[in-house]
Please model this.
Amino acid sequence: MSWRDLGAGEVRTSHVGERHTLAGWVGRRRDHGGLIFVDLRDETGICQLVVNPERSPKAAKQAHGIRNEFVLQAEGDVVARAADAVNPNLPTGEVELQVDTLRVLATAPPLPFQLDEEGVDETLRLRYRWLDLRREKMQRNIRTRARAVSAIRREMEAAGFVDIETPIMGKPTPEGARDFLVPTRLQPGRFFALPQSPQIYKQLLVISGFERYYQIARCFRDEDLRADRLQELTQLDVEMAFPDQEFIFALMEQTMGSVWRDCVDVEIQGPFQRMTWDEAQARYGSDKPDLRFGLEIEEATELTRGSEFGVFANAPAVRFLRVPQEFSRADLERLEGIAKEWGAKGLAYLVYDEEGEVRSPIAKFLSQAELDAFRSEPATTVLFGADEPGMVARVLGALRLQLGRELDLIDRDAWRFLWVTDFPLLEWDEEEKRWKAVHHPFTRPNHESLELLDSDPGAARAVAYDLVVNGIEIAGGSFRIHESELQAKIFGLLDISPEEQREKFGFLLDALAMGAPPHGGIASGIDRLSMALLDEPYIRDTVAFPKNQAGIDPMSGAPTEVSPEQLAELGIAVIVEKD
Model:
């Protein structure tokens, strides 16, 4: 049996006079006092059905009972619409199907929400995800994501990379996010871990002689969820022996060019701009700066060393933003609240009114040289950060983004790609009183930093790089450590004892000692890449079946309790916390 011989969105004027069968979902039904019009939708688009009781009384009787999201099969003749009935917004808007036979293939009850309804609660959307996925935006998102992956595979394979799968059940390791653990019946009391990334496996593959590896890999991280973060994610994973940073950059630039061309019909011009991590922090207060607008951070530390304003004189770093807006006192109080949320103690300012006169409680403490340096255009506000360099960057970077959105400074039609390079190798965790890896513990220090590992680890820089577009990090990578002695040294700096090194990473250290070539690579999160590509603010709307912000699937109810018998078989006891 043939359910249809043409897609609903494929009907054109060339089909006029032909007889065709269509099948799909009811998008909308309109009763015009006799004639019934139905928008029939399938994955190819929409075609208008016309049910005329004079032409087919039986079909008309069927049509009276249908509702949105019924599944129909309709047979009839394709005819041209009257000139005043043409819909220029639809590819099928010049034609319609005059129905002779109408079959209801599936019914639907009154829906929990309409597909064209705005502002539907996310929990309700996730509870009825099969309905939510029928919406035009979600169809676009999921299909665009699929095209992006197809373009990525094409470029990787053209460059000689081999698609190799790595295990989903592996060994728990320290660092990074928390692992999702998997018990095993055959080894009671022992656990596999779902991979946070295929990091160690891809290094082992290159050591094994697969010099160019890639994979569209599933990764799992037990961490708190945000608008741009998932617990289950998908990434393009790339590794190569004898790595060449220029080759990796060019490969990713070409790949992103193909993705943007295939998915949104935009030509991306390379090579992409480059900026060191230190420069990005100093100019934009971020390691993933949005370059679609200016509002750069300016330096004033040396200028204010002898300032009579003690906050400036005593601060390790003083920097500022010139904002093209004369802020009121209420505006400044609100902005100070935002600054404090990011860790600032306060927010100093100079406001220049329409006549260029300055208004500020700190102006009287500033020298003429300082005032001259901060002098700005009329109707401008200068906002200052004075604290440790990292704090100043964080606060002014957050204010920059906030004001870029509020003042409509962002060029929404632009695509601004950027490579951020030369990341710090390590960062000090004040709470745990130890060093942590900025990227991961397998990242290679650059040549100049090797001698700093003993004297000043915080000053060491890594052969590490991120690819950013419009303020969203869409890829990140590094060269890896291929010498077992250097890897053990980095583990030691991370406070991983020799015993723990052998327990957690013994197989990797052994592999590195047996002819490991220099190697490195990059990974790109497909979910976050899709966010950037689609200008989609919520990462869950780039995934077919995501969990909600609590890590729960409202549709299936997972995670669920399991029976005591199954827990006993796995050697697991559940301890219920008392209120």
